[in-house]
From TrEMBL:
<keyword id="KW-0238">DNA-binding</keyword>
<dbReference type="InterPro" id="IPR036388">
    <property type="entry name" value="WH-like_DNA-bd_sf"/>
</dbReference>
<feature type="domain" description="HTH hxlR-type">
    <location>
        <begin position="14"/>
        <end position="110"/>
    </location>
</feature>
<protein>
    <recommendedName>
        <fullName>HTH hxlR-type domain-containing protein</fullName>
    </recommendedName>
</protein>
<keyword id="KW-0804">Transcription</keyword>
<dbReference type="GO" id="GO:0003677">
    <property type="term" value="F:DNA binding"/>
</dbReference>
<dbReference type="Pfam" id="PF01638">
    <property type="entry name" value="HxlR"/>
</dbReference>
<dbReference type="InterPro" id="IPR036390">
    <property type="entry name" value="WH_DNA-bd_sf"/>
</dbReference>
<dbReference type="InterPro" id="IPR002577">
    <property type="entry name" value="HTH_HxlR"/>
</dbReference>
<keyword id="KW-0805">Transcription regulation</keyword>
Length: 110
């Protein structure tokens, strides 16, 4: 009788792929990106209203993380309002077809 190998596979995920899913798979990040894809720019309070159930503390953390990953950027209008807003960077905007594919998949399977 042939014995099955108990050694581990040589398979490993591409580190870039793994890092991407670490970012996109983190709770609330996909919703933040989705809001910014639709709104183009949003202030913190507007994001907080649209990403319901996410606490302000966690939303702040996620925005900082997405900023550190250069997916979003924080912008301050030099005019009469000094309140910052958030918008997607070019790399964030390039997530649009991926988010569209997730919408298509979820409509079919969820």
């Amino acid at each position: 009788m042939e014995q099955l190998s108990t050694t581990t596979s040589d398979f490993s995920l591409c580190p870039h792929f793994a890092k991407t899913f670490e970012i996109l798979g983190k709770k609330w990040n996909g919703l933040i990106i989705e809001v910014l894809l639709n709104e183009h720019e949003a202030r913190f309070k507007d994001l907080a209203c649209q990403v319901e159930k996410c606490s302000d503390r966690v939303l702040c953390e996620r925005l900082r993380e997405l900023e550190d990953e250069e997916i979003i950027e924080r912008v301050v209008d030099g005019g009469h309002s000094s309140r910052p807003a958030y918008r997607l960077t070019q790399s964030g905007l390039e997530l649009a077809p991926i988010m569209d594919a997730v919408h298509d998949w979820s409509k079919k399977w969820r």
